Amino acid sequence: MRLTQGQFSFLPDLTDEEITKQVQYALDQGWAVAVEFTDDPHPRNSYWTMWGNPMFDLRDAKGVMMEIDACRAAHPDQYVKVLAFDSSHGFETVRMAFLINRPAEEPGFELLRAEGPGRRIGYTVRSYATGRPPGERYGGETRHGT
Amino acid sequence: MSGTTGLLDQETRDRPSDTPSVDLDALYRESGIGGMLAGMDRELVGLKPVKTRIREIAALLLVERARRSIGLRAEPPSLHMCFTGNPGTGKTSVARRMAGLLHGLGYIRRDHVVSVTRDDLVGQYIGHTAPKTKEVLKRAMGGVLFIDEAYYLYRPENERDYGQEAIEILLQVMEDNRDDLVVILAGYRDRMEVFFRSNPGMASRIAHHVDFPDYEAEELLDIARLMTAGMQYRLAPEAERAMADYILRRMAQPRFANARSIRNALDRARLRQANRLFEARGNAIAAADLLTIAEEDIRRSRVFTQ
């Protein structure tokens, strides 16, 4: 199941050229661009791991693309996203966020039902991938190791 | 760019008998290089070899753009440069101008200059240098990276110096990201030569070695005029003669630093002018007095008493 979240989630995955243009747009607005990655694809997981610090002092997208390439090379089997943070008064929040890398195979989510009092059903989802410990999800890292 | 090429391709295909032609003059006019080169001539005194080289580069980039517009192969030329010359010959000023020029010619994407020295590139302990250098390179991407006194990067007396690591990262980026970054090294001639001798890789990756000549006395006087005008001062006619004398005497003395010495001399003349006006307080001071640097402000310099 193809995971979608953030901006452009209904579009096909962005090419490097398209990512460059989006990043350049963010930099032109004066936003700080950050790169984050995770192997826990749950939609409510807001704690992704930061790839370095947010880049506050760049003017050209190429600098960000270098970090993006480095992050994708280090974590080819994980989700990677780009964030643009607007520090101006009144916003002080993330203005853009989109996925730029995904594992080759995405097992998707299981629907869990919990029966409560009066046969009330509570629903939740659980990623099949998170059944395994971090680092072994999506096969990638263990295959390198063994 | 690709859009125009495609269009022209189609045109050539449709009319195969036509040889495509390019209006170089139109390209020249729309790029605004003429204005930039004229500005350079106006604001930079002397520096003939430097200006010639910049003109050549401008012509090369323009022709390259024309070639691309008719679908010919146009490899972006390597434009890493090395500016050598004595102190105060305008290396930094030209480097700052270079970014605007290359941006106007469409060679680099932004017109920013990131100016660094050894301290910004080289770390203090093992593993500190690479991230530091990469951080600077990231910041400079798309524009010009200006490394002042580049020979300090290499310290031959200490074989475990981290400068070598910075040089290697720099070399790799200069090679791989040629269309993203122009690196300009600057420094005094003799020391740069030693630096290149011990880093042949660096020397071979730099296509343009530009030598900044020392200024002539008349050129220095022109510079003094430009500087005073820039600071909204005026040299009285006698003061100008005094300045010419000053320049001749100062040039003969040790530690003469070309335009920088002139700037310092003018700063001191301003100091003496302010002092003179302050001593004479009580009388009304005309606007012209505030503007004018008089002969005595320059004649009272240490250079004339020695």
Describe the model:
- Chain A: Keywords: Calvin cycle, Carbon dioxide fixation.
- The complex is a heterodimer of chains A (146) and B (306).
- Chain A has 146 residues and is α+β, with helices and mostly antiparallel strands.
- Chain A has two domains: 16-101, Ribulose 1,5 Bisphosphate Carboxylase/Oxygenase; 109-145, no CATH class.
- Helices cover 23% and strands 27% of the residues of chain A.
- Chain A has helices at 16-28, 61-74, 140-145, and strands spanning 32-38, 49-50, 79-86, 93-101, 109-115, 121-127.
- Chain B is an alpha/beta fold.
- Chain B has two domains: 2-212, P-loop containing nucleotide triphosphate hydrolases (Rossmann fold); 217-305, Helicase, Ruva Protein, domain 3.
- Chain B has helices spanning 2-14, 24-31, 33-43, 48-69, 91-104, 118-121, 129-140, 163-176, 189-198, 200-205, 217-230, 237-252, 258-279, 287-291, 295-299, 302-305; strands at 81-85, 113-116, 144-148, 182-187, 208-212, 234-235, 292-293.
- In chain B, helix 8 links the parallel strand 3 (144-148) and strand 4.
- In chain B, helix 11 packs across helix 12 (237-252).
- The radius of gyration of chain B is 24 Å and the shape is globular.
- The interface between A and B is medium-sized, with 11 and 13 residues.
